[in-house]
Target: Flavin-dependent thymidylate synthase
Amino acid sequence: MPLSPEQEAEITEQRSAPQQTLRAVSEGMESHLYTAYPVLDHGFIRVVDYMGDDAAICQAARVSYGKGTKSVQNDEGLIRYLMRHWHSTPFEMCEIKLHVKLPVFVARQWIRHRTANVNEYSARYSILDREFYIPAPEHLAAQSVVNNQGRGEALEGEEADRVLRYLRDDAMRCYDHYEEMISQEGQQGLARELARMNLPANIYTQWYWKVDLHNLLHFLRLRADSHAQYEIRVYAEEICKVVADWVPFAYRAFEDYRMGGATLSSTALDCVRRMLKGETVTQENSGMSKGEWREFEGLLG
Model:
């Protein structure tokens, strides 16, 4: 189960005791506070706290640009301008703190984004739960033959059954040995900080993750992308839903300019100009490598 009874009770208590505040409040985010949204088989994300909203982004930008900006541009127009021209500082005025439960191998990918404050559940002091990520059959894929980082077709039949059996059995066996090693019944018991080394990478961990909106959007641009690994992408997609309600103007601009947009090199831009003039442009006369040309063709459809 994603949430323990104790966590469910804590969330119920937190949501039943709203506090008055004089700070800026995002109505869209208030509906998400403390609610746990399930991800994968045992994971979740939930918003623990946040600061700022779309207005905070504009407030920061107008301090930078001086008086009078408000009369020229509305808030959404200003935010789109900031996003379009890569003015990142105003987006740093908003922050979010998430409580995330995720498999360890996903956490190791996630932590590569070294732009957040993180505090993880400690297996030195506490005993990890017997919870492991086991992929659904449709996500049990073979290695891609064209991309060393990607997946190919889903495994089928006896091979899929065997792999799932290995994942379940090996995880359970490792946890059995973990429990046996730390047990103090009839023995001293191995220290938890040492016993944890025997646990598999698909066991679940938890952390608090606090990040500003600028760095969060960078995380989402990479991890909510269709090419990202499925197991981290589903977390990013769930966070996207929250961000869309928290800062709707900023999120719409992000979708338009970052998720749905593309960056062209000067060479690629020159090729576009030549095409618009009616010139036939090929990889051979484009000035691009085969890889660059393939990506360029993909952008143009």
